[in-house]
């Protein structure tokens, strides 16, 4: 993932999570990922999230993958 894509991805996930008034932990549960995964994603430190992780996070946020990448 390109650097600007990582920043946008991180920002989009955080904005959508906050819009839904979810904590990082409350997003991690329905996404079936660890709380640390959400923390790393939002910090822009997730270099290559798997498509599976992208799908899970998007589904938990009730958006299409395209809306978060």
Concise overview:
Helix content is 64%, strand content 0%. It is built from 4 helices and no strands.
What would you give as the CATH superfamily?
lambda repressor-like DNA-binding domains
Report the average pLDDT across residues. 91
Number of domains: 1
Tally of alpha and pi helices? 4
- Overall SS class: mainly alpha
**CATH fold name:** 434 Repressor (Amino-terminal Domain)
Rg measurement, Å: 10 Å
Query: Which CATH architecture?
Result: Orthogonal Bundle
Largest sheet: none
> Helicity range of the residues?
55-70%
- N/C terminus separation: 10 Å
What is the H/E order? Answer: HHHH
Q: What is the general shape?
A: globular
**Strand composition percent:** under 5%
Stretches where pLDDT falls below 50 for ≥5 residues?
A: none
CATH C-level: Mainly Alpha
Number of strands: 0
Describe the structure.
The chain has helices at 3-19, 24-31, 35-42, 51-61. It has a single domain (3-63), classed as 434 Repressor (Amino-terminal Domain) (Orthogonal Bundle), CATH 1.10.260.40. With 69 residues, the chain is an all-alpha fold. Helix 2 packs across helix 3 (35-42). Helix content is 64%, strand content 0%. The protein contains four helices and no strands. The mean pLDDT is 91. The longest helix has 17 residues, at 3-19.
Summary tags:
69 residues, 0% strand, single chain, globular, mainly alpha, 4 helices, 434 Repressor (Amino-terminal Domain)
Chain-wise SSE layout:
Blueprint: H1 3-19, H2 24-31, H3 35-42, H4 51-61
């Amino acid at each position: 993932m390109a650097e600007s894509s990582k920043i946008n991805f991180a920002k989009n996930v955080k904005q959508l999570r906050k819009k839904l008034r979810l904590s990082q932990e409350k997003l991690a549960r329905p996404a079936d990922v660890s709380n640390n995964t959400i923390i790393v994603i939002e910090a822009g430190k997730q270099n290559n999230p798997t498509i599976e992780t992208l799908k899970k996070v998007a589904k938990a946020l009730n958006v299409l993958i395209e809306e978060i990448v």
